[in-house]
Amino acid sequence: MQYDDILKDLGDFGRYQKFVYMCICLLAIPCSWHTLGNTYLSASPKHYCRITDDQVYQEISEVKTCTIPRLSGGEWDSCKRYSNLSVAYNVCSSELGLRDANIADKEVTGCDNGWVYDTKYYGSTAVSQWNLVCEKNSQRQLSKTMVMVGKMIGSAVFGQLADFLGRKTMLLFGLLMQTSVGVGAAFAPNFPVFCIMQFLLGMTSSGIFVTAYVIGTELVGPSKRALAGIAIRIFYSLGMMLLAVLAWVLRDWPKIELVISVPPIIFLVYYWILPESPRWLISQGREEEALQIIKRAAKINKVKLKYVETNIPGKQVLQSANGRPVMRRRHSAVDLVRTPNMRFKTIKIYFNWISSSMAYYGLSFLTEDLGSDPFLAFFIAGAVEIPAYILCLLFLNRFGRKWLTSIFMVAGGVALLCAIPVPNEYTNMTLAIAMVGKLCISGSYAIVYLYAAELFPTPIRNAGVGMGSFTSRIGSILAPQILLLGDAFTPQLPIAIFGGLALVAGLLVLLLPETLNKKLPETMEEGEAFGKGKSAWRRMTGQSSKLNLAAMGDLPAVFETAPPVKESESESSDNLADVTISVISRSHRANDIAVQTSEEDFGLDNPGFAVLHQ
Q1: Is residue 593 predicted with pLDDT exceeding 90?
Q2: Residue 285: phi, psi to the nearest 5?
Q3: β-strands 579-583, 593-597 pairing
Q4: How many Cα atoms sit within 13 Å of 604 on the Cβ side?
Q5: Which residues lie closer than 8 Å to 165 by C-beta, 6 or more apart?
Q6: Among candidates 278, 281, 312, which has minimal Cα distance to 297?
Q7: How far apart are CA 565 and CA 584, in angstroms?
Q8: Among 153, 277, 434, 480, which residue's CB has the most CB atoms within a 10 Å radius?
Q9: Cβ count near 536 (within 10 Å)
Q10: In angstroms, how far is the first alpha carbon of the chain from the final one?
């Protein structure tokens, strides 16, 4: 008996689960703030060389006309000024400026007196405060990259520690760390300190979100896993939209940092509200604690449990294929690639994760340069995600995780590639096409969390999702740097890269097994067996590889572990494929029995018949 069996009495999504899940979803809002806040914290306003100390930014002025050269395209040079023209407001005239503008060989120099920044949208940003422009332009994306590096480290560290120390413990630690570091970041004395703080905020944001996500999916039954996996993403999008509003109101980066850091301290009350994950407690052998949480949930859900304490999973003795007991041991992220089928699934789902993350964050950060209003563009970027999540909820249980992920990724990739021929001056058209791509990519990015959580078995589920989030940060770390390629070459290049990778990932995901309506694997053996023995075509089409043995007569409904192979027979049996007999019905009728062949690779002592009660 396993936790999914208990949920049959407890209910897949009763009142208790709904309350806890709503608490979990609220955590996604501050996570989105700190993940994407650098869109405004380190935004790069328009600028040009400062001539006088009291100078303010103007689109056109006599001083600007007299001192700032124009580029070949007609726009003002933001990093150069005329070198031998010393002019003040009272002596510079527009006629002088027009005359000097026609001198093609006029000498220019850098902005040795600093820059004047446009304050139309931003009062101050990290870029304007520390002058991260011109020769330091590459550093303006550094804080965004540091957030993503922090998210990479945080997802791995928090994911592994949550499997060791518990989901609730790491969740509360992350919340406390996020608030304290966020307040410190608002008072950063220089840019290196600011980047370090952003790195730590990235760690906490990823750690909190991944742990909360796993708690949500572990809490509910199979029929509601899609809802649990997608609904939390809606709150993430709402956080993005609220961030745009907060930034529009506050304008100055220290104020924005404080406002998104202080309020989440209220979530520390979760110490008294949130329970530990019963599924995790059971996997750790802490059945008594799990039983108390389950009983409290049953009381709130107003249901009666049919099982007694001895029926809690984990009390049962696990057996290997040769009938010997298996000692419970701690698992780590290494187990994700220890066996061939688990390794195959891990690589494929992680590549999809990397591609989705790169496109998702790249398009989110790109809103700073798309459209005429950065606040409105970012708000739209958050709003378009909600229809994607609604589509996920409508079709996830119809098309399945695999096919819907593929459809979203391929459609998103094609949409982004369609933006390549759009002329540079049509920024609003590029924004519209990019947002269609963002809608599709958001759908696939939401599903990949759920898909991974269902693919990985309980002992390494948090580590698997955490490492998936870790590897996906390769994409999100590269995203800001890829955006710089648009400055160096053509603005369409980043969109082409995002679209191309999304298209490839959408096709490769078809090689993974479907998890729709499948029981979550509870042990490493079940995780390795899941989807094993199917050809690439069967994985893509979802066809079963089971062989019906109706003509073989009646067979018992449950097969116990076969006797161990004798020592004299071991050599001749080394090359034989093991046979895993799966019981797929409670009936004893032969046409309800199927046999699935697969190579034994569970790391057990001897080959033999293994039992899977599905």
Answers
A1: no
A2: 80, 15
A3: antiparallel
A4: 24
A5: none
A6: 278
A7: 26
A8: 434
A9: 9
A10: 10
Distance between CA atoms of residues 429 and 425, nearest Å: 9
Q: How confident is the model at residue 370 (pLDDT cuts 50, 70, 90)?
A: low
* Residue 29 and residue 235 in contact, taking contact as beta carbons nearer than 8 Å: yes
Alpha helix ranges (H) inside 418-535: 427-455, 461-488, 492-508, 524-529
Please give the backbone phi and psi of residue 603, each rounded to the nearest 5 degrees, phi first.
75, 25
> What length is written for the chain?
614
pLDDT value of position 578: 37
For the chain, domains (ranges, CATH) are: 3-43+138-511 (1.20.1250.20), 47-118 (no CATH), 546-613 (no CATH)
- Residue 598's closest CA among 346, 402, 339, 350? 339
Exposure letters 86-112 (e unless 16+ CB within 10 A, then b): ebeeeebeeeebeebeeeeeeeeeebe
Is there a contact between 502 and 415 (Cβ–Cβ < 8 Å)? no
pLDDT at 244: 95
Whole-structure pTM value: 0.73
Give the Cα separation of 584 and 569 in Å (integer).
31
> Which of the four pLDDT bands, split at 50, 70 and 90, describes residue 314?
very low
Contact by Cβ (8 Å): 596, 531: no
Amino acid at 82: Y
- State which amino acid sits at residue 484: L
Q: Are 389 and 532 in contact (CB under 8 A)?
A: no
When pLDDT is cut at 50, 70 and 90, the band that residue 377 belongs to is confident
Rounded Cα–Cα distance for residues 135 and 350 (Å): 36
Residue 543 pLDDT level (bands cut at 50, 70, 90): low
Single out the residue of 609, 596, 307, 354 nearest to residue 471, CA to CA.
354
Contact predicate 240/377, CB 8 Å: no
Contacts of residue 360, Cβ cutoff 8 Å, sequence gap at least 6: 438, 441, 442, 445, 476
